[in-house]
Amino acid sequence: MKNIIILLVLSLISSGQGMAQKFGYADMEFITSKMPEYQQAQTEMKKFSEKWAKEIQDKFADVSRMQRAYMAEEVLLTDDLKRKRQSEIKEKEAEAREYNSKIFGMEGLLFQKKKELMKPVMEKVQRAVSKICIQKRLDFMFDKSSDVGMIYSNPKHDYSDYIMEELGIDAQPAKAIAKEKPVKEEPSVAPKESSPKQKSTTNKLK
Questions:
Q1: I want to staple 133 with a disulfide (CB 3.0 to 4.6 A). Which of 7, 93, 138, 205 is the partner?
Q2: d(CA 98, CA 115)
Q3: What CA–CA distance (Å, rounded) separates 22 from 155?
Q4: Do 206 and 174 form a contact (C-beta atoms < 8 A)?
Q5: pLDDT for res 145
Q6: H helices of 18-76, where?
Q7: Strand, coil or helix: what is 151?
């Protein structure tokens, strides 16, 4: 739905400019599914996922064994031993939960491994997309299989500077300063007479 709205808006813009801009779309999900590199990456991901899942399962199994052993021996234990065993069980359970979060949590090891394995695949796809867009003289290309939307845009249609200008942001000096090596300025002596405070330049947008 999001992609359809974007396409409609851009189509209206294009109509107003004499159809000067060209648009296209691709089904990236279908394309990548046919790539041997993508399938290989998926196979590797499955191996890592199953390996880590087994390790986590074993850790929670150890917690269950400790709990069953404690329940079977509870009546024979002193209060001090009960507290000690309970503490050990809690620590073991916390360790298992922490490891699970480390692996499968947001930006965990599984997420990082997926990024590592998919990076060369996506770079190859992006090179192909850019090449086709240049060959076919497309200004924009969209991915119809996801909500990501635009996967290629001609830099000449980047109106960021105009928007920054409208917002009163001096884009060009900011870009020039970013490229130059910062030079340490000598502290200036403030005038005795009161004057309006100057805006700090330390937080300029890059």
A1: 138
A2: 22
A3: 14
A4: yes
A5: 76
A6: 28-33, 36-73
A7: strand
- One-letter-per-residue 3-state SS of 65-88: HHHHHHHHHHHHCCHHHHHHHHHH
pLDDT grade, residue 108 (50/70/90)? Answer: very high
Q: Which amino acid is at 104?
A: F
The pair of three-digit structure tokens given for residue 156, joined into one six-digit string: 């000449």
Smallest Cα–Cα separation from 102: which of 138, 55, 32, 154?
Answer: 55
> What's the rounded Cα separation, in Å, for the pair 191 and 198?
13
Q: Could you read off the pLDDT of 22-37 as tens digits, one per residue? A: 778 888 888 888 888 9
pLDDT at residue 141 greater than cutoff 70: yes
Helix (H) or strand (E) holding 11: helix 2-16
| 204: helix, strand or coil | coil
- Per-residue pLDDT of 146-191, as tens digits, reads 766 666 677 766 666 766 666 676 756 545 544 444 444 444 444 4
Helix ranges restricted to H, 74-149: 79-104, 109-135
- The two tokens of residue 169 are 């942001």
